[in-house]
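Sync notes, pocket subgroup
Present: LS, DG
LS reminded everyone that the earlier model was apo-only. Rerun requested with coenzyme A included. Inputs:
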Amino acid sequence: MESKKNEEEEEHGTEKLEFEASEIEYVSYGGEHHLPLVMSLVDQELSEPYSIFTYRYFVYLWPQLSFLAFHRGKCVGTVVCKMGEHRNTFRGYIAMLVVIKPYRGRGIATELVTRSIQVMMESGCEEVTLEAEVTNKGALALYGRLGFIRAKRLFRYYLNGVDAFRLKLLFPRQDLHPLADKDDGHGHTDHIPSERCCELH
Amino acid sequence: MEGQAAGEAVMDVSLPEGNSITSGENTVWADISPLLDAACRDLEDGELIHGENFNLFAAMSALEIMDPKMDSGIVCKYYSVNEAIENGAAPVPISLDKSVDVRCTIDIMDHLLACEATWHKGHSLAQTVFSCIYLLRPERTSSHALLHSFCRVMRATCKAVVSVVSDARTHEEEDLFTMTYGLPLNGDDDKCLTMLNAVEETTCRQLRACKAPSSKKRVIEDIEPLQTNLELEEGYCRALLCRLRFRKHFYHVLACLRRPQGRGLELARKHIASCISELECALSSSEFLRSVAFGTYDDQIEDKTTASGCEPIGFDASLNCRLSAPTPPRAIKILSWKKAVEYFIKLLHDLDVICSYSLDPSLESVLHFVVQFQKSQPDLVARAHLQRLLVQDGKLYGQDPVFAVITRAAALPEATKNHDIQKNEFIVQLGQLVLNLLKILCTNSAWKRRKLGKIIQDWRVIYLQLELAFKKEFGENASVSNDENVCVKIFQHILLWVEEQTYWIASQFLILGFELELYSPSEYCMVYWYIYVVSIKLAEKTHLKTAVTCGTGKRKGKKKRDCLKDVARDYRIPPAVLFLQCQICLAEGLTMMLAALRNEHMMFQSLNIFNTEHERFIQHFDLLQKACIPDHASYPSFNESTNYARLSNLVMYNYFKDAQRIAKEVKSSFSNDPDKLAELRRLEQVAEHNNVALNVICRVGVGDPSLKVSFEFNHHPYFATAVVKRS
Ligand SMILES: CC(C)(COP(=O)(O)OP(=O)(O)OC[C@H]1O[C@@H](n2cnc3c(N)ncnc32)[C@H](O)[C@@H]1OP(=O)(O)O)[C@@H](O)C(=O)NCCC(=O)NCCS
């Protein structure tokens, strides 16, 4: 938490970059040449590295759900997702989202996830989920604005003892009957197992 | 990726020579190197051969060997406990210099306390307490009485704590806690206290000896001093004594709490008091220990794991890496000794609260006690003890059968508790639900809310089943025999009570969302609306139940005159219901205020990119909606009641004023219930502040863009107060 505060100070401090929103270019994951970019970005923000298997698991199975943001050829942000059947619902899952510090607060992350969510919706997902640390104010605000609710709190989800929120975004349905049983427990293999997921600071 | 899986390939390859595992029927050993080579040449960069069960979990569990961040094996200093011992990592004695030996022993004791607290706080036993090499090899310390007796009581204590936590099974998300695989926890527990007592006795005499005036010294000369530096003798003796005694009393506390039917609670309280005073002694010994260690008393040791500030000897957390967790274990931070002492003092206070509970057989009182207890946010160990006390052998406190508890809660006459109806399968199931509810209420808030959400459905279903059984058995006709009459009454009472209980669970579920911070301000409006509709139902059922109770009371041969008085009193609303009504007014007031602010565009303009408030409503209240709690509560009805809210109307009909009035009125009825009184005072404050805020907003002018309204929880944990500011 402390480190996050410092981070925020930095953000609002001197090292802000001058650029136009239109200078940012968004591209869908395009193959092995993008992998090192995604990895190094996530690694920078992670306390613990994901193995290369984890990255490939996502980007090979759902390349259409991963996006990268470039500024003058430099990769400055990325989102990595998956989707699949989970207890009778087809749902999307946002696994990693990172924007490097000098580029934060300019809507890049919002644009990245919006693109992923759009694809998920068009692919027939009924809902989108993810976990975020309860202390991650930035991410919580960002997802809150997109319509995610905090569906549950996961007790000491991360090994550092911090709780997580399971965030969920439900897409509208044509028929407004009560939803089918889509209750989910915590600790199923559908999402990134505890401790190691989304521990992005 | 899945398409590229090069699954089974059959190749004819020769058997390698001299393999030790023999092949079975229909199977032969084959060298697959050529196959792998061939496959590798075929693979593009980034491709992977995998089985069908390769999933995210498998991908995430993969380790990159020799990467120090992932491969926990290579960060170990020693490969085995034996190797560590051979390298002198845990010498016995710790030092040949007796003075140093004592000092180091105390450090070990302190670090163990820090480890123990860290364990209780949710880390694995293997990586905390059992990072102590001395604990891992019980027989090695036998020549060192102090260390040996301490290690034994440590192991016995851990075992007792593991046992209460696994019995309670509140640890669904805390199972790291009870993982003891491979740890030497099975010693002879009973003897550990005998040894500890003997060591304590010796230290006590050593302390007496060093304090005795020199004239008497001769008499007790036969006592060998604790260590060699006579100036430090008293300080060391004292420091040791409080540590040994804390261990003894703590072990007693656990043993007393384990006694059936709460029989040891009184004695436990005495030991708890002793534990706390020994911990205080330990705290004050730290000055002495620090000055011995560093020559000066300096305050730079806040984050040290020992009172002296020295590193303890004989610990290596990496030795147990392989035992501790399925994922690559990371270095964990052991709490500081000071924090550990604080933790134990809090734990002991929590246990003391449990011990001082009167074991009231009324379910309502139990529920109230547990909810109240949870407000102090007790940790796992205290919660597990509470749960074990409440539910033993399928009975409340191990003594009151569930059916008796239910009949009492349902306001049935005492004699009903033996009625045969308790064998009815749905009544039996209901009993299970009650016990289950008690257990759930003892878990951590996050888990508790999830479980409460799930059992609402069960309570609803059991209600319907009981109702059906009731109708089937007695039909609609009223001409029933006397015994059937009793059954009818039992059913009616129980049905009513089940409904009340269900609404109570629903309201707990909703309220817990605030504690867990699950609601964002833009959702408060719908949440308060839901609390409002559920509370109305709860109040209705409570009112009915109270009326029915009076009915039962009257029948018990009361004089006519009393009866008349009862009737007169019945016209008044019972205090419990008024109490609920006060909350209802607040919930309704907040709903309307939030709705009005939204309707008049003063806050919460949501983006609605991917969904709308409707979806968020469904998601938050899905579990209640599925169980029809309450009937007809739906998004359209929420909309209907909030869409036309305007601030001007709110000032005319002010719910907060009603709440304030009721709170004032009902206070006198709770003059001997401090919890309820405190709650009423909080409700009153919320009402008062919101009333003022509402008036300010209206006076200053609706639509003034410089006016900023926000909601805070500074007077009540879940009823918000509006804060108005000018920007
Ligand atoms: C979270 C993160 C991806 C946001 O990136 P970003 O590009 O700055 O986000 P955006 O600019 O799209 O922010 C959109 C909204 O989110 C909110 N937000 C973002 N960062 C915030 C912060 N530090 N504090 C408060 N709100 C914040 C704001 O409401 C913002 O809208 P606004 O600028 O109009 O007020 C970025 O901070 C990051 O990489 N953090 C570390 C990794 C991480 O935590 N990932 C999420 C894991 S679940």
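DG: Residues A 8, 45, 97-99, 104-110, 130, 132, 136-139, 141-142, 145, 198, 200-201 surround coenzyme A (CB under 6 Å).
LS: Chain B touches chain A through 55 residues (CB under 8 Å).
Action: DG to write up.
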